[in-house]
Amino acid sequence: MSNHQDRPTPVPDENLPAANTVRIFQTHNAAGAPEIAEFVEVIRHRTVNTLGSDAMEFLRPLNLTQTEHPGVFFYSDPARGRGWLRLERFRRPDAERIQELVRMEEITRVVGPEPMRPADLAFGNALVLRTNNPYIMFVIALVSVICGIATLASLPIASNVAEVVGLGAVGGLLILAGIAAAIVGAIRLPWWRRARQHARHQGGSVPPDLTGL
Q: How far apart are CA 129 and CA 139, in angstroms?
């Protein structure tokens, strides 16, 4: 005889929304007339970017505005009307990332689009260079150029042609990468300053996308 008790199988709640659901509560239609309606959109993770980034492909055209409640936003879309929406059954990190990205959208509507925006990768941003801070880009550029020059300086002590070619290629690539990083930083710097200034004027903390790595 079995000495354990059979455990009941959980019955799924049919009323529970699907994971990563955006529930939209319309108050006015596209013509601006009062019209109550409710819509549901399930966000799919389709790319190598964060789920929050994928969600913004749907949410961005809605022109979201934050409310005092996390995960709840007002929206105003000329094509769909206006009202409010709520994030349902998102993992906490994903919901928090959407909250950050919505705030960034509010900032860019005032200061202009973000130039040369790095990819919002879902897998280990520590493994793939992703920095929004132009000053960090300048440091990376300087280190890369110095390493490239040091590599080229070692050419006279190379023992054979293959080593000369290899060191020359590595040194050249490091210098080019440094120049590219400096150009990206220079392009981003004016926008970065405007965005940070606007974020501080809004009050509260500066968004992570405007602080560093």
A: 13
Measured CA to CA in angstroms, residue 130 lies from 186, 196, 204 at distances of 16, 18, 24
Q: Rounded to whole angstroms, how far apart are CA atoms 122 and 112?
A: 25
Sheet architecture: strand order including 21-28: 34-42, 21-28, 81-88, 72-77, 65-66
Residues 6+ apart with CB under 8 A from 101: 52, 53, 55, 56, 120, 209
Amino acid, res. 38? E
Q: Taking a C-beta distance cutoff of 8 angstroms, is the pair 129, 116 a contact?
A: no
Do residues 187 and 115 touch, judged by C-beta distance below 8 A?
yes
Confidence label for 2 from pLDDT (cuts 50, 70 and 90): very low
Tens digits of residue pLDDT in 19-40: 999 999 999 999 999 999 999 9
CA dihedral (120, 126, 129, 130) positive or negative: positive
Supply the DSSP string of 17-47, one letter for each residue.
PPSSEEEEEEEE-TTS-EEEEEEEEE----S
